[in-house]
Amino acid sequence: MKQLFKHYFKQKVRSWFWKKNAPALILTLLGGLYFLLIALSVGIFADVFLNELAPNQEPTRIFLKYVFIYHLIDILIRFKFQEIAILNPEPYRTLPISKRKLYSFPMVTSHFSFFNLLALIIILPFTITNVWMKMGAFQAIFWWVFLFSVVLMINYLSVTLKLFMRKYTLWGYVLYFVILGYIVFEITGLLNVSDGYASLFLFVIQYPYLLLIPIVLAYLSYHLGVSFLLKNRYDGVSTKKSVKIVSYSFLERFGEVGQYLKIELKFIFRNKKVKAMFISSLFFLGVGMNFYLQFSPSSFKNVFCGIFVISMFSQNFSQIIFSGISSHFDGFTTMSINVRTWLFSKYLISVITSTLSLVISTLYFLFDPRIPLFNLALYFFVIGVIVPFLMYLSLFNYKPLNVVENKSFDFKALDWKSFIIFLIILGFPFCIYGICYLFGNVYMLYYILAGIGIIGLLTNGYWMKQIALKFQSQKHKLAQGFRQD
After folding, report:
1. Closest by alpha carbon to 421, among 456, 391, 377?
2. Residue 69: which of 182, 190, 218 has the closest Cα?
């Protein structure tokens, strides 16, 4: 196992992406330290916060209820951001290395996940200040054993589920949104299972021998993941199934753009990774219910929700314009392709999907008739400004995305930086919102964003030309990054 760790470490540090993106890696480290400091402060001052939230209740019980909700949120975050350390098994098949050891490597490396450390930093300070100091060292140890066993169990199950999604993408998203919906119901008070979790925890730590239950469950979760990897190690190699081919011949009437649109539709629906992005965007249309149930027309959350609902797919798709074709990018650069027209077809895909999202989101008029009008203004801002902006930024994404790999929730070219870009995109509307708020007319925000979006639409030809010109100077850097990652 030690040798496997050395190989994996060398694989990472020798990659072109590692060497050429030192500033990004430093920012990643600083961002991780920032979140760890936040987690540490939460753990240290948790009793103060809990006394303010529930002054007449026992802090330890309230802490356990919030820990249960944190566990659920942790599962959702791991689906998206936790990386799985995978070694190519081919070079090891002729070496004297047991298959179980080789395929247990992803589970072993998951112990060093950032999310495990984050949970530990939240739990440890609270148990020291509120359990050890008040109930003794043994009680504190019981707390640590129980809670960290649950964290490890979630860690193993998250890795296993991400591997499971390779074959059952739809079921994966169903499970994802079931957990998301449950979190919403728990926070709003419609369900109260967290109280049962707290009661179960307090009961178990009274009888130390019952602590074997979470330990055994964590152990079984680990071996479940390893067994799944062993059972499916040749998955997808010899599977044969009939495929219904859709030609999209009706697009031929639109000339060269229609031909490119046919290719883009096949790209979306024939590659599971991109198809999963499209399916998830449809599911995320329901996120608005969490924001619009208590609709406040002057709140900025309407802008956040509107942009999120309308542009979920188009944002992700616009960021993988070039990384999505990284496996054959060298061949792409040698072909006689009108890059500007090709980029315009990509842009049209984002416009079509955003329009589809807008039409579906009009159902929110049942909550308030002003919501579709707000979303219409944001729609113009999305297709006129956000999509071209992200298409331009995709020229600087040197990390390849293997769309042929059948892995859901594992977008290598869509990591935490995609989330940072989303925050930057929201920063501009938020600044305008602040100005409008100071002048006492928040509704002007929507007129301004719609106006800027319409201007972007009218000048779209110019921006597509600029992206095409920038591509000519960036294509060699992109090719080098895709080739050496």
Report:
1. 391
2. 182
Domains of the chain, residue spans: 2-231, 252-484
Predicted confidence at residue 279, as pLDDT, reads 72
Q: Contact, 169 vs 162, CB < 8 A?
A: no
Residue type, 45: F
Q: How many whole angstroms separate alpha carbon 288 and alpha carbon 366?
A: 12
Identify the segments of the chain with pLDDT beneath 70: 1-3, 5-25, 27-28, 85-94, 166-170, 232-248, 283, 286-290, 293, 402-420, 484-485
